[in-house]
Design goal:
The structure is a single chain. About 35% of the residues lie in helices and about 20% in strands. It is an alpha+beta fold. The strands form three sheets. Strands 1-5-6-11-10-9-7-8 form an eight-stranded mixed beta sheet, with helices on both faces. Strands 13-12-14-15-16 form a five-stranded mixed beta sheet, sandwiched between helices. A hairpin with a 5-residue loop joins strand 3 and strand 4. The longest helix has 20 residues. The radius of gyration is 28 Å and the shape is elongated. It binds histidyl-adenosine monophosphate (HAM).
Length: about 425
């Protein structure tokens, strides 16, 4: 047997209803907040992520599915959508039609991580990005939209964590402060952190190595090093979140594992997920569009992990609805009429099942029972002659006859009240 690749999974029929629920709420919420869908390729040039996600990130350093294609080009299965969304915005000059672009996308991402519950090598994200608006009110609106999304999925006990990582003018001071505070201790940190200290000290906060934590806990906080425009921006974001009545915790450690962030960063943490508890995360990135060859436009967005949202959904969500009816052919000669009845009901908008391979009425009834269909519609010679259908209500066992040309209308009326 050839099995699926480690860290990838089939989404099976029993689970697909939960996925559809998440995708449906995602689209609905995004569209209510003024976002339009965009779909970008899953494969991009490697340099897009090296430049966009950032050379010093774990994603680019260790986790990318990159290879040389048959034409000799270095390509990558996207590990995240943000650089692709920026590329598409720039390449298609979307700015000309959309002075501020609010875009969303749903699809698979690929990271070569160590698989565990909630962490996979192929996973799916809802990705949301806005280009062209620097107003901190937007930061709060994006966070509020994420909160509405999680709430409408019925996911409870979610914590919102926010931070500001500053901008190009105050970040260097903070990086200096980190290096000064670390001093000689750099040598005691893990190899990754020693590399981070040399390339991008902020990334030290991404460290999960237990032995490093006492040193990291003592490091300075980014909020204390913000320049006054960044401090003002963060203040307005918090004020607007307060006005929305959203509860949040400020965590100086929330620097997020990607290099492009400026100012606001945020995550929503779920309580039922164990170690991989980030349901979604995002932030502002005011230089990425320019950095990737576009106009000087600010950006902000977030991505939600669909596997994690599906795991966190309450029980019972997305369970398949029972079919409206199961058509049973009584006697061999009745099959063509039975199939025509199923066809008519399906065309009318009802969910209708029917059997195959000429099985007996008894075994069709067994299947009807097992299918959970609400009604069985029996069509035998008598019914065909009298142009009627015998309807058996599965819940009560009651049977009654209905005129053949009235079945669809009647069933639709009942389906609406069910
Ligand atoms: P991220 O924090 O790397 O951000 O990923 C966002 C979400 O994707 C995570 O909170 C998590 O729910 C899910 N996720 C990430 N890695 C995995 C994995 N290996 N398995 C399952 N789920 C995973 C980004 O990707 C940024 N592009 C977000 C963003 C958009 N920032 C601005 N705009």
């Amino acid at each position: 047997m050839i099995t699926a690749i480690k860290g990838t999974q089939d989404i099976l029929p029993a689970d697909v209803g939960r996925w559809q629920r998440v995708e449906c709420v995602a689209r609905d919420v995004c569209e209510r907040y003024g976002y339009t869908e965009i779909r970008t390729p899953v494969i991009e040039r490697e340099e897009l992520f090296a430049k966009g996600t950032g050379e010093s990130t774990d994603i680019v350093q260790k986790e990318m599915y990159s290879f040389t294609d048959k034409g000799g080009e270095r390509v990558t299965l996207r590990p995240e959508a943000t650089p692709s969304m920026v590329r598409a915005f720039v390449q298609n000059a979307l700015e000309q039609e959309l002075p501020f672009a609010k875009l969303y996308s749903l699809g698979p991402m690929f990271r070569y991580e160590r698989p565990q519950k909630g962490r996979y090598r192929q996973f799916h994200q809802l990705d949301v990005e806005v280009f062209g608006i620097a107003d901190p009110a937007l930061d709060a609106e994006v966070i509020e939209m994420a909160s509405t999304f999680v709430e409408e999925l019925g996911i409870k006990a979610v914590e919102l964590v926010i931070n500001s990582v500053g901008c190009a003018s105050c970040r260097p001071h903070f990086n200096d402060a980190l290096l000064t505070a670390l001093g000689e201790q750099v040598g005691q940190l893990c190899a990754d952190c020693q590399r981070r200290a040399a390339t991008n000290p902020l990334r030290i906060f991404d460290c999960k190595v237990q032995a490093d934590q006492p040193i990291i806990e003592e490091l300075p906080h980014s909020e204390d090093y913000l320049c006054s425009p960044c401090l003002h921006h963060f203040g307005v974001v918090k004020q607007q979140l307060d006005a929305f009545g959203l509860l949040y915790r400020v965590s100086h450690r929330l620097v997020r594992g990607l290099d492009y962030y400026t100012r606001t960063t945020f995550e929503f943490l779920g309580s039922s997920l164990g170690a991989q508890n980030a349901l979604l995360g995002g932030g502002r990135y005011d230089h990425l569009v320019k950095q990737l060859g576009g106009p000087d436009r600010p950006g902000i967005g977030f991505a939600a992990g669909l596997e994690r949202l599906v795991l966190a959904l309450p029980d019972g969500v997305g369970e398949a609805a029972a079919a409206d009816a199961f058509v049973v052919a009584f006697g061999d000669a009745s099959w063509p009429e039975a199939r025509a009845l199923a066809r008519d009901l399906r065309k009318a908008g009802l969910q209708v099942l029917i059997d195959y391979e000429g099985r007996s009425a008894k075994s069709q009834m067994k299947r009807a029972n097992r299918s959970g269909a609400r009604r069985v519609l029996i069509l035998g010679e008598d019914e065909i002659v009298s142009e009627k259908v015998t309807v058996k209500e599965m819940e009560t066992g009651q049977q009654h006859k209905v005129a053949r040309d009235e079945v669809a209308g009647l069933m639709l009326a009942v389906a609406r009240t069910d």
